[in-house]
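2024-03-11 09:14:02 DEBUG pipeline.ingest accepted 1 chain
2024-03-11 09:14:02 DEBUG pipeline.ingest length=299
2024-03-11 09:14:03 DEBUG pipeline.predict start
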Amino acid sequence: MAAPLNLNDLHFFVQAVEHGGFSAAGRRLGVPKSTVSKRVAELESRLGVRLIQRTSRSFSLTELGRDFFRHAQASVIEAEMAEATVRTHLGEPSGTVRMTAAVPTAQFVLADHLAELSVRYPKLRLSLHVSDRFVDLVQEGFDIALRSHQAPLPDSTLLQRKLATHPFFVVASPGYIRAHGEPQRPEDLAGHKAVTADFHGEPWRLVSIEGDAVAVTPEPVIAADEPMVMMKAAMAGLGVSCLPTSVCRGALAEGRLVRLLPDWTAGSITTTILMPHRRGQLPAVRAVVDFLSERLGNS
């Protein structure tokens, strides 16, 4: 009777696949590249099949390796859940939670809360990957993605948990208002300079608290597709701008920006947590999700 597979070998294999190679997996695990390669080779030898095609320049799964990876990953997660269940009974959540977020979401939505998360759960380690590229949670081994979006997210196999919705306000600096006057109606914006995301001339669609809608097109003087740059340009007095409250809340509170047309908003942006189903059951992941829901749900 063949000996059962070594769960540690499955763990090394899963880490190698999730991180795209033996070197990256070794850095993640804190072991030499040769250790990861050797353990995966022993796993293949025990199975009698090739799971990974590797050369000096490429690393890819065989067709059988892809099927094996899905089951191996599930087994590793189940083992993590079993260990986490015991740790939960012994004390607070612990272990590493891997999260990814786009740059603006990390800067404006997440960053201010990381210190409190660390204080609340000192045995929990958060690994945050900040990138504007599309990140595949399942294939890249992430536990959580924090995404801010204006259009609804597509249906997928991922768990989704809506955290907050941030309306867009029309804002300008006090200096700009002194120099150019304050618009009293949405139509007045057509005569104002603006800081926009692009020069395409798309009109701003404003909606009042009564539900009235008006489309206006101010004159763009600077365009930037990054909200921090847009906010700083508006604070410098270059023009009016439309910014979500997640971005401009602090500047408004400090008086560096002023909200114009307070009865009107220009759409909204939603922040949502996404999780692979199995990883969403891990106690450490649940602790982070519950914390973010508590801190961001009222923001």
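2024-03-11 09:14:41 DEBUG pipeline.report The mean pLDDT is 88.
2024-03-11 09:14:41 DEBUG pipeline.predict end
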